[in-house]
Amino acid sequence: MIVLDTHALVWWVSGDEQLSLNARKAIQAELSKDGQIMISAISAWEIAMLVAKGRLALTMDVDDWLATVASIEGASFVPVATDVAVQSVRLPGDFHSDPADRMIVALARHHSAPLVTADAKIRAYRHVKTIW
Question: pTM of this prediction?
């Protein structure tokens, strides 16, 4: 089981070279062993916001894009559960205040799963295992 940060999801689905080789291998390894790729529902919100603001262009309507992602075998959007939402405000140590990042990190910690992310702030946070 692995969790994808929002940008890692977009880069993976679009085949973007910004996704590191190590991240790509981790995703493929997870899929090849019938593992689970978890995506926080907050990432769907982030993607929709970026599209609405013109900061992200997708190859199709955002609803269709998200439905396509949800249909990938082994990948699933995970609703923001109450306990994960609460954990996101109780992260140990010093972590920045971005609510989406906090939710995604809390999801990874809740499931003891590594988080695929290029985000330097998250990668520097010693309380979550990351892959990049």
Answer: 0.96
